[in-house]
Specification:
The complex is a heterodimer of chains A (156) and B (95). With 156 residues, chain A is of the alpha+beta class. In chain A, 28% of the residues lie in helices and 38% in strands. Chain A contains 3 helices and 10 strands, in the order ββαβββαβββαββ. In chain A, a hairpin with an 8-residue loop joins strand 9 and strand 10 (151-152). In chain B, 25% of the residues lie in helices and 25% in strands. In chain B, helix 1 (13-19) packs antiparallel against helix 3. The longest helix of chain B is centred in the middle third of the chain and has 9 residues, at 51-59. The chains are: A alpha+beta (156), B alpha+beta (95). Chain A binds chain B through residues 1-7, 48, 64-67, 69-71, 73, 95, 106-107, 127, 130-139, 151-156, and chain B through 10-14, 16-17, 20, 22-23, 64, 67-69, 87, 89-95. Chain A: It comes from Lentinula guzmanii.
């Protein structure tokens, strides 16, 4: 079955933040360069990768879909909300769609801010909010199971 | 009776896997159909699918209209109109 026509690549550029959904991720190095600025003393990054097991079952791969235009709106609002706590930061949030193999990254978040406290906190805030709200779905495939039986997961 | 208006319904994840489709054009009456009634309409349209699974999925999903989420308590207040893009938002699992 083909992925939904609305599960496409997309980018939103805000002032001091970029959110994107894409089939491949930029390198962590280039992402770090994008958020860097001489006014910042701290850069926190989070990379989510595909684990090889779930409740005793061997995971062979993950597949992600997004309702991209809505997911990007949601990610934009998350950045706006983060600025209510911490006005001064620059962030990049990238989420992959398509098949993500074991050990591969599915999400990269980089946050640069003047001090380490805000960098860590904002990075975590963005991650937890993306997991809670972004219109993105993950399907987990297990070894020995028919692909048609693979379940769509829920973060709830 | 033919309906003069249509909405586009988008399915993702479990909803699309269960139905075997990712989107469809659904005829609706020009007035008087509310978002809270859409579940029943979709179940009627797909009566050959595994109904229990479909109903469970739709009951546990949220909805968006034209890429804006609709609060659960507003479902009875939102009237469906011609041209709307309605998406079934199953519980998410990004990040």
């Amino acid at each position: 079955m083909l992925p939904p026509g609305s599960s496409v690549e997309g980018v939103v550029e805000l002032s001091e933040a970029v959110c994107s959904i894409s089939y491949a991720l930029d390198t962590v190095e280039s992402t770090i360069k994008r958020v860097s600025d001489d006014r910042f003393g701290a850069i926190a990054t989070f990379i989510g990768t595909t684990r090889n097991s779930f409740q005793g079952k061997v995971v062979t791969k993950l597949e992600y879909q997004a309702y991209t235009k809505l997911a990007l709106k949601t990610m934009t609002q998350i950045i706006v909300d983060a600025r209510n706590h911490t006005p001064d930061f620059r962030a990049v949030v990238q989420h992959r769609i398509g098949v993500v193999g074991v050990g591969e990254p599915s999400i990269v978040i980089a946050v640069a801010s003047p001090h380490r406290n805000e960098a860590f906190r904002t990075c975590e805030f963005i991650l937890e909010e993306v997991k809670r709200k972004a219109q993105i779905w993950k399907r987990e495939y297990y070894e020995g199971e028919d692909e048609s039986e693979a379940e769509w997961k829920s973060n709830v | 009776m033919s309906f003069p208006a249509h909405i586009t319904v988008l399915y993702f994840a479990a909803a699309s896997t269960t139905l075997g489709i990712t989107d469809e054009l659904v005829p609706i009456p020009e007035k008087g159909l509310y978002l809270s009634q859409l579940t029943e309409l979709l179940i009627e349209r797909h009566s050959q699918s595994s109904l229990n699974t479909l109903r469970k999925i739709l009951d546990s999903s949220q909805w968006s209209i034209d890429a804006e989420m609709v609060d659960d308590e507003d479902l009875t207040k939102v009237e469906l109109k011609d041209g709307m893009e309605v998406a079934v938002i199953c519980p998410v699992s990004g990040g």
